[in-house]
């Protein structure tokens, strides 16, 4: 039931702070130590490479997860689009471990990979929001996102739950491997800060609605840009915008602009820069300067400690590895209000189904 909300998507965006707290409650003890099945951790620890597999938004969550696993465990981690991996298996590590990210647990492309993985005798974990779903039943291990039902076709709270859960799992695995980085990563405190930060962003809806109507309601094209983890969020942000508002939106690695994409910039093309990482903030800002001088309408989503007076949206500071949990929220709301302003059916965009059960 969507209660007083006009669309499920808005309700689900608003639920994200609660989802963060629920994950803390389900998966962390009072000291903030993850409560994860030791048998699962033992199998993951034995792997020489982690393979994360997903489609759409789940694939985008995997892009963040790979960084979390590499940083906190030191295990090399690769991310694959399920429909690609299914038909072109790369040369494999000696001891792979597979992580399937799927909100619904029913995505046919992801299931195809799991079936092949099982045939080859490799261990797997499904991270899903739907208990008893197909992929949850078929993997060696299953863990639930506890995000509550996600009805809107556009995935929002499942993405942030997938990212936050992977951080918890990466910490658990890193601790099982005696990694100092993992022991020092105060995930409980950080997810608390994330929940507070998300609340501040969802409380600024009026501002996001007016930004959407001013900059995104007219143009046919829009670009999100960023580097590293911000680029991964740019991909997800662009998917949200195209999926529900039908703006041709793309996410680009900002360093790639001058290798081709910048030719697309016209007068008033919206370009939204995501800036949350110390090492790349200035580089992305200079890429934004390059598009400004070609007439683009530039907007910024920047972490507080890197912000400048004319930034459009300023995010509260959290651990930089968890910044996607905040930077994606304004992008979700910009997509929502752009769709709403066009009078579209936000929850049921054309040509799309909530779970894609054909390959
Ligand atoms: O249920 P899944 O996570 O396996 O679904 C994967 C994609 O179909 C899904 O994330 C899709 O991209 C969303 N509609 C995006 O908002």
TrEMBL record:
<keyword id="KW-0032">Aminotransferase</keyword>
<dbReference type="GO" id="GO:0097367">
    <property type="term" value="F:carbohydrate derivative binding"/>
</dbReference>
<dbReference type="GO" id="GO:0005829">
    <property type="term" value="C:cytosol"/>
</dbReference>
<protein>
    <recommendedName>
        <fullName>Glutamine--fructose-6-phosphate aminotransferase [isomerizing]</fullName>
        <ecNumber>2.6.1.16</ecNumber>
    </recommendedName>
</protein>
<feature type="active site" description="For Fru-6P isomerization activity">
    <location>
        <position position="354"/>
    </location>
</feature>
<comment type="function">
    <text>Catalyzes the first step in hexosamine metabolism, converting fructose-6P into glucosamine-6P using glutamine as a nitrogen source.</text>
</comment>
<keyword id="KW-0963">Cytoplasm</keyword>
<keyword id="KW-0315">Glutamine amidotransferase</keyword>
<comment type="subunit">
    <text>Homodimer.</text>
</comment>
<keyword id="KW-0808">Transferase</keyword>
<keyword id="KW-0677">Repeat</keyword>
<feature type="domain" description="SIS">
    <location>
        <begin position="40"/>
        <end position="179"/>
    </location>
</feature>
<dbReference type="GO" id="GO:0005975">
    <property type="term" value="P:carbohydrate metabolic process"/>
</dbReference>
<dbReference type="GO" id="GO:0006047">
    <property type="term" value="P:UDP-N-acetylglucosamine metabolic process"/>
</dbReference>
<dbReference type="GO" id="GO:0006002">
    <property type="term" value="P:fructose 6-phosphate metabolic process"/>
</dbReference>
<dbReference type="GO" id="GO:0004360">
    <property type="term" value="F:glutamine-fructose-6-phosphate transaminase (isomerizing) activity"/>
</dbReference>
<feature type="domain" description="SIS">
    <location>
        <begin position="211"/>
        <end position="349"/>
    </location>
</feature>
<dbReference type="GO" id="GO:0006487">
    <property type="term" value="P:protein N-linked glycosylation"/>
</dbReference>
């Amino acid at each position: 039931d969507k209660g007083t909300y006009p669309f499920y998507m808005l309700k689900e965006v608003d639920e994200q702070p609660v989802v963060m707290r629920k994950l803390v409650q389900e998966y962390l003890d009072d000291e903030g130590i993850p409560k994860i099945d030791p048998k699962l951790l033992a199998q993951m620890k034995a792997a020489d490479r982690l393979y994360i597999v997903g489609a759409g938004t789940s694939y985008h969550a995997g892009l963040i997860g790979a960084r979390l696993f590499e940083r906190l465990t030191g295990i090399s981690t690769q991310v694959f689009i399920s429909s690609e991996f299914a038909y072109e298996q790369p040369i494999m590590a000696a001891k792979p471990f597979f992580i399937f990210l799927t909100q619904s647990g029913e995505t046919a492309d992801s299931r195809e990979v799991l079936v092949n993985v099982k045939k080859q005798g490799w261990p797997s974990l499904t991270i899903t929001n739907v208990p008893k779903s197909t992929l949850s039943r078929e993997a060696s291990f299953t863990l639930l996102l506890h995000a509550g039902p996600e009805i809107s076709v556009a995935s929002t709270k499942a993405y942030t739950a997938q990212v936050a859960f992977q951080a918890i799992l990466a910490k658990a695995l890193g601790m099982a491997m005696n990694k100092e980085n993992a022991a020092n990563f105060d995930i409980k405190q950080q997810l608390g800060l994330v929940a507070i930060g998300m609340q501040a962003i969802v409380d600024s809806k009026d501002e996001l609605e007016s930004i959407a109507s001013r900059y995104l309601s007219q143009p046919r094209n829009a670009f999100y840009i960023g580097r590293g983890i911000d680029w991964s969020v740019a991909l997800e942000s662009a998917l949200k915008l195209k999926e529900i508002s039908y703006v041709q939106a793309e996410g680009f690695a900002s360093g790639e602009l001058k290798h081709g994409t910048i030719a697309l910039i016209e007068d008033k093309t919206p370009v939204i820069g995501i800036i949350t990482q110390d090492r790349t903030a200035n580089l992305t800002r200079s890429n934004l300067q390059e598009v400004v001088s070609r007439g683009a309408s530039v907007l910024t989503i920047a972490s507080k400690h890197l912000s400048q007076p004319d930034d459009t949206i300023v995010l509260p500071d959290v651990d930089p590895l968890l910044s996607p949990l905040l930077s994606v929220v304004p992008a979700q709301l910009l997509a929502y209000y752009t769709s709403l302003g066009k009078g579209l059916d936000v929850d049921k965009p054309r040509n799309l189904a909530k779970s894609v059960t054909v390959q």
